[in-house]
Hints:
Blueprint: H1 6-9, E1 13-18, H2 30-39, E2 44-47, H3 54-70, E3 75-80, H4 86-98, E4 103-107, H5 124-134, E5 138-143, H6 154-167, E6 169-176, H7 180-192, E7 199-203, H8 209-219, H9 225-234, H10 238-257, E8 263-267, H11 272-282
Parallel strand pairs: 1-2, 1-8, 2-3, 3-4, 4-5, 5-6, 6-7, 7-8
Helix pairs in contact: 2-11, 5-6, 9-10, 10-11
Amino acid sequence: MVISELYHKKKRSLSFEIFPPKKDSELKNIDETLTVLCELKPDFISVTFGAGGGSNRNRTIELAKKIKYEYQVEPVVHLTCLSYNKSEIDEFSKILVQEGIQNVLALRGDRNPDIQEKEDFHHASDLIAYLKQKEAFCIAGACYPENHPESENRVTEMRHLRTKVEAGAEVLISQLFFDNTYFFRFIEDCRIAGIEVPILPGIMPVINAAQIKRMVTICGASFPIRFQKIIQRFENNKEALFDAGMSYALSQIIDLLVNDIDGIHLYTMNNPAVARKICEGIRNII
Length: 286
Ligand code: FAD
């Protein structure tokens, strides 16, 4: 199933992001996570794509196949383009087609001084246009309610996002954020700019103070005072941080749901307890 169909049929989707484990031995442990996630009947599960290297690509595909054929849930495969040329992208798309994978989250990828950039693709929109002309994938793209860290300003960011949609992105999935005000303003700006596709808010519940500080530094999401206080108070108390982090994420999600958004995309960090807790909290609401 192509995920864009969801939004013709029903109002809201529930989806998860997971990442392929780094070691083969951990591929087995992923079953525990998937069992819990799939009990919650998500509309799709997206699988991240490590920067550079063939084995990373294989792990993404293996996990996507597992989700599709063992768990009967639709996978969305992330694919970055900065460090690949057209023939490498062709090779990867051919495998996706052979494996019956129909949904791709097409990304540029982060710049990394250790990984050589190639010349064929400079922006996600280049990859999207290329994939669209070659294969019948349903393409999703990334978006940034608080702007991409490299963004010059809000206006150019919106223009580039519109280019991405015009190139063929049918759904947008957002970067994580901790203050819904940014997301609501972003949706409004998108609609004013003529971007009409479904936009899914990405929510990451906090369970680890160090990890969340690192994420905020990388992606530039604001750290509201209410949220900072939770981290400060509970960073050395794992159980308390879990409870407070879940409650914070739940209150964000409920606020989003009562404001008629297109769905919820949960960054699970492969943690089944996170997915379970959040879904118990919204089961009767979504
Ligand atoms: P782009 O859309 O190309 O945008 C990047 C920057 O370039 C923006 O500032 C934009 O305004 C600008 N830009 C875009 N088009 C143009 C243009 N035509 N001219 C000039 N400037 C332009 N990374 C991974 O490595 N693996 C993953 O699996 C992964 N999954 C992700 C999932 C989500 C939901 C999100 C939000 C991000 C994910 N990322 C992942 C991170 C992503 O690769 C980085 O944020 C990257 O820096 C930008 O990717 P993009 O696809 O948004 O790029």
